[in-house]
Amino acid sequence: MEFALNKAKEQGLALHGLQVDARDLTSIKDNQFNHVLCMGPMYHLKNEDDRAKIVTECLKKLKSHGILFVAFISSYSFVWDYLIRNPEFILDSDRRVELNKMVDGKDFAGKGFSDNFYISPKNVLPFFERFNLDKLHLLNSESFLYLREPELLQQKPEVINAWLDLAEQVCEREDLLSMAEHIMYIGKAK
């Protein structure tokens, strides 16, 4: 928080910061925001009741018909990380158990590339069925680009932009959600 506030100050931006537990947002006034971004708590809390409480708390802060953005880490994300950075992890028995969760299409809490909750893409929409939300979008935040990000960033701006345009066109395709590191659910409060 301190880093973000210092950077905002350097840029001359008026930014107010508040650090709280996302499961208890009572220190923030209800019904005051058009948009709420929940970018992190869903993959740091391993208990589903905690994740549900976060969404409930976020919804309280939205104005009528406000829009909620919620990020998850895909259960496939750590596979890409292992493959790119530590391919030998496939031989480690503990890591193999985690990889098999992905094979079985299950959510899991565990090491991955860090100690997080990883959701199977097919389980994101069912998670939100209990909330008073209309789904607007479910998307693959990085699309396929992060698999070759270092190489892509070495290209000319027009090449990078063309790839970004293509990725944006397919980011909501259900068949590409398994390529996601992060999945974004965007819903409108009813």
Low-confidence stretches: none
**Share of helical residues:** 25-40%
Shape assignment: globular
What fold name goes in the CATH topology slot?
Answer: Rossmann fold
Mean pLDDT: 91
CATH class group: Alpha Beta
Radius of gyration using CA atoms only: 18 Å
The CATH level-2 architecture is identified as 3-Layer(aba) Sandwich
Order of helices and strands: HEHHEHHEEHEHHE
| DSSP, total strands | 6
Q: How would a textbook summarize the main sheet?
A: 4 strands, mixed
β-sheet strand percentage: 15-25%
| Total domain units | 1
Main-sheet strand order equals: 1-2-6-5
At the fourth level of CATH, the homologous superfamily is Vaccinia Virus protein VP39
Structural class, judged by helices and strands?
alpha+beta
Number of helices: 8
For the terminal residues, how far apart are their CA atoms? Answer: 31 Å
Give a topology summary.
Blueprint (H helix, E strand, L loop, with lengths): L1 H9 L22 E6 L2 H4 L3 H14 E12 L3 H9 L7 H11 L4 E3 L5 E3 L5 H5 L4 E8 L8 H4 L4 H14 L11 E8 L1
Parallel strand pairs: 1-2
Antiparallel strand pairs: 2-6, 3-4, 5-6
